[in-house]
Structure formats: C-alpha cells, structure tokens
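look at this fold:
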Amino acid sequence: MNITIKQSGFSAALRVMPQPYAHSIPDIECAQFTVFIVDDDPGVLKSLARFVRAAGYAVQTFSSADELLAHGVDVPGCVVTDLLMPGIDGRQLQAALCKADDRSIIFISGTTDAPTIVDAMKAGAIDFLIKPVDGNALLAALTVAIERQKKLHQKQVELAAIKERLAQLTPREAEVLRHVIAGRLNKQIAWTLGTVEKTIKVHRGRIMEKMAVRSIAELVRLTEQIGIAPCEEEDGQTGEALIGDIGSRAGRPGGGALQIA
C-alpha cells in the first residue's frame, strides 16, 4: 500500500524545475493511455491537465464525477480525481468505476484523514496525493497505473486464448474435461459416463491437444483461470447438464459444440 502525504507547491514545481521529471511514460503496448482528471476547482483542473499533458499523456478533463460517468471511460487509462466534490464524490466515483472494470484511480485531496485514505487504498486506489500535489509523486503514480494496465491487458489476452481453445472442445470432450481435472483415472471416468476406457483415453488425448498442454497440472491451471470447476466424485449430473454448467461458467450456455463468448 502506497500512501503519499507530501506538501509541495504544484504550480511552483512546474516553474522552478529546469530538468525533466525522472518519471517518464514507460514503453507500453497501449499507446492510447489516457488520464481522466476530475476536479470541481477550475484552477486545479487546468493546472493538472497542463502538467500531465506536458509529461506526454493524453488528457481529458471533467468538472464533476457525474460528467465523467455520463461521458464514459472506454479507453485504457486511469482516473485522477478529487476526493470531496459536490454530487458524486471521489469514493463514490471509485465504487462506480470498479463495478464496470478494474480502472486505476489516483486520489488528490486536501484532507489528511487517515481512515478515508486507508479505505480508498484498500478499495484499489493507486495513490492518495495531498494538495498541493507534488509533480513527481503524480508522475510516479501514473507510471504505476500504466504498469497495472499492462498486466490487466496481458491477463485479458491470456483469458481470450484459453476461451478460444476451450471453444474447440466437443460437448463430450468438455464433459470428460471436468473429470480429468478432478484427477480421475480413465477407467473411473468411463464407468461414470457409461463407456469404455479406450474411448476416454482418446477424448483425453484430444483435450490435451486442443488445449495445447502437456500435463494435467497445466490443464488444471488453465481451467482455474477460466473458472471451470472439477467434477466431484459424487456428481450425479447428466452429460448435457455438465455441458451447460461448463458453458455458463465460460460465459455462454452450452448447446451443440461448446461455445465461449
């Protein structure tokens, strides 16, 4: 948890520092990283926007949280918001954004109330900067936001790849999959599903090939990431029910070949 409480004249820092700030925009895949700044004080809003743009970031400004929510935050980036504002305040804005996606948030405020700061950080804020804002601290927080964005993007890419592989399984293979990740032997699965061991062996091989894994441990890891639970030993679900369960966990009800949204 990173909590910054540092008094330093923001405007003065802009005027007196002859050298560029040490924190520059890291090399990221997301070239459209945008900083959304929310503050009901026009002077603060203008100063922050000018400073962040000078550091090389794309900036959008809003005089209230309501205005930001009405506009929408549909591009990669982070929100820099005042804590105390008329209408929806900073903490309420944080809650609203968290419902939509894992949006990075940096708070700026004149308050040094410890419980408020701690609550904001526990809810996922990157930093809590005390006004007047220190420029280096703000740029450091933006760098952290970009790194978080990179990790989130990588996770989304990985999940999409797993879903694509999973969509290649037939309903029967998807049914066998849950038994396999439960650690059951071919003969046990065959007995439960009313077929022969040789058939299950073929299904297992095709599952491993389509999921692009070489071990059961890898297969378990992938299914955990996508939210598919192993079949319990006493699970009495029918084959169709199992397919529906896997399909719903992955994002779309089963039917025919397993489809993943």
Remarks:
- The first strand starts at residue 34 and ends at 38.
